[in-house]
Amino acid sequence: MTRKNQIGRIVKCIVLWGFSILVFVPLIIILLNSFKAQGDAVNMSFSLPKQWIFTNYQEVVSQVDVFGAFRNSLVVSVCTVIIATTGAALCSFVLSRRRTKLHRFMYLFFLLGLVAPLNMVPAILVLQRLGLMDTLAGLILLYSALVTPFTIFLYYGFIGSVPREIDEAAIIDGCGCMGLFWKVVFPLLKPVTVTVIILNFMNAWNDFITPFYVMNSSSKMPLTTMVYSFFGQFQRSWNLVCVIMVLILVPIIVVYAFGQKYIIAGMTAGAVKG
Question: Could you give the number of structural domains in the chain?
């Protein structure tokens, strides 16, 4: 390696480390402020706490139903992942393998969901007619509908890279349609499947606005809405708000840590195929 290439590599590493630090700074600020007193946390500074107050977490647990909200978020996120991933994978397999005009139109119709904004009025009316307002099932179905277009977009491109000869060999060996997909094709979709699981989980887990439209009962609210318990017109307990943020971030970091190596492969395949 020449000296010029070495210098370029060092500069590249420095730049990448700089961007990484910029990403982690807000997370560190949130973590530090979760251990500060209410007055010290107002400025949301990067400084260490003057006094480490570990009881902030205990105070949050005692004032709001954190475990119930955590359970609601987990149920909604996991069910959204299962419904959206399963439905989109099956739909994408059919659309990718049968390239008729009708299936092409259906694929483009699904892609409209990537650019069309969510209109809450018709969504709320549909949920009311179905009796799903103020229910976790209604929130799950709404999230599933929102993430399905992007999930189909990723699966469609990845399935297009799977050779059709594999389908033909499986059919000759006696596989039916469902057996062909679940036993032969789906195991080959591991990178994109992990990608959509992580992205769909993050979308459902991190959403803050939608529950306020479709949920009325505080006992059914997800964890993200607990921020309002400590921030309002007459109260701004930023230290306790940061505690909630830390609790929200932990599952996301864990899920991403286990599947991050598949994200680039899944995103790339879904972006260039089809």
Answer: 2
